[in-house]
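Figure 2 data, in text form.
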Amino acid sequence: MSTIGDLSLRTVLSKKKQPPISVLPCKLRFLKYPQPPRNTTESILSVFSGRQAWNSEAQQALDALKIKLGYRAVREVIKALSNVDVAVGFFHWAAQQQDFKHNTKTYSAIVRLVGESGNLKLMNSFVLQMHQEGCPVTPYFLADIMMVYGHHKMAKQAFQVFKEMSNAGLQPNQFVHNCLISILLRCGHFEGAQKVFDMMRTGNKCLPDAITYNMLIDKCGKSGDVLRAQQYCMEMRHKGVCPNEKSYASLLGSLGKSGKIEKACDVFNVIKSKGRLVNRVTYTELIKGLGRAGESMKALELFREMEESGCEMDVVVYNVVLDILVKQKMIGQAWKLFVNMQARQCAPNVVTYNTLIGGFCKEKRVDEAFRWYDKMKGDGITPDAHTYSILVGGLCKLGQIDAAYIFLTKRQSSSVLQENKLGTNDRIDKDADGRMIESIPVHNTMLNGLVKSERLEMACAHLQLMEKSGYVPDVFSFSVVIHGLGKAGKPNDALAMYQKMKKLGIKPNLVTFNTLIDLLGKAGMVFEVHELLQEMRSLGLKPDNITYTSLLPVADKDSHKPQKLNPSAIKLRFDHVLGMPNVNDI
């Protein structure tokens, strides 16, 4: 039996007969709970502005407002708050106000916020409190609990809540089924989502709707299962469920990603012939697919058709077309499109500028790229890690390693200054140990440039500096330095770098192992190669053709004859090496 904490769902649901769920249209149901005056919600939120904890001052400030609370106002305030302590304090304060008692919907809001923060124990206590106060448990309330579990990738627990609803006699509705399918898909359980979908379409009370089909079509598209995506679309029409813009956009995206661009064009033309659903989203997906397939001219023609049709344009479609132009080295046309974009009052974003900056760097016009970087900041757009990676990479490709290093160092210094000034830092994301990770791609670009320019001492020093500065290197950071040490004929240094990588808890990948096996094999370090093979197998990594080729000098180190074996022959010859019980078998 599923439980929420120590509380059985069956216990919660069996104490009181549940009232029937309203079947009124959504707009009519809302009439039962009129919208609160905006000044009520805003006044309450103004009390919490900048407040990091609930305290007596907050309570006194709320008391001074002398407002009459309503259910909607309480829900809106809780949903707007991100600080759990403040939200919980407000929830308890509201319960003490005259003529106000929490209902299922206000409990639902606090349960969702507290649960998604990770405090499942506190969430469970609110569920118990709600039960004790006699508030009815509805499918929507339980769907919120399911979404909390989904937020934490706890698909099994979400499914158990779903099962207990039926066991307790509370029929899951269409919304609940869709929530569960969404959770299962996000957690990677496609077959489980398919089973829930099958339950819906074989029953009579809760049939799939457009939202159900769209989720499945979108997932199939992202996974490259075009055939199944098409089958879902056909089934929609057969079952009388009208495909909407999301349905067709997902299908077009699926066909484009799988390279079936002719089929995508056919689908688009069918939609257009019906005189409906050809909108910004469907145009964008087909333009993107044409660009991916190398049909740049057709993509640009379709974009012009989109403009002439009067279809709404947004920054996403402009960015797609800019990317196509840049990849075709049509940087002048890209600049004109940028001007046209602004003339149409469509504000560029960081992706827009990154695309143009990247275009200039690819054409080795780094000075022009930096002018766009300055313009970007002047227009109030904050550069991101990708911006800096592009610029550092552009300088490195021109051989301007020192300039790239100075630029990166200045960037790091400015972020530290910003952190000291604002109490925050622009690197945002940190790992479980509090180490910064957002700018790692920038540093990896710098490391790659240093290694390619054969400045290995500087690369090793920079790797050490990253750790001291709070940046956690990743597998690429170490792999690129190990590769450089290998090319320089320094096997012992490369092996030491590998050991350091493991000590930091960074899991090596196949590229790391192949680089080391090749390097150590050529150096005749047979025992070390054996250890690497054992570690590789323990991590579940399967050797590829590069691995087998790298093992050739290990097995035939005494042979001076050139080896000319195809990958299959190499694999057959060295399978015993990968399965050896001891070093002497090599």
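Caption note: The chain has 32 helices and two strands.
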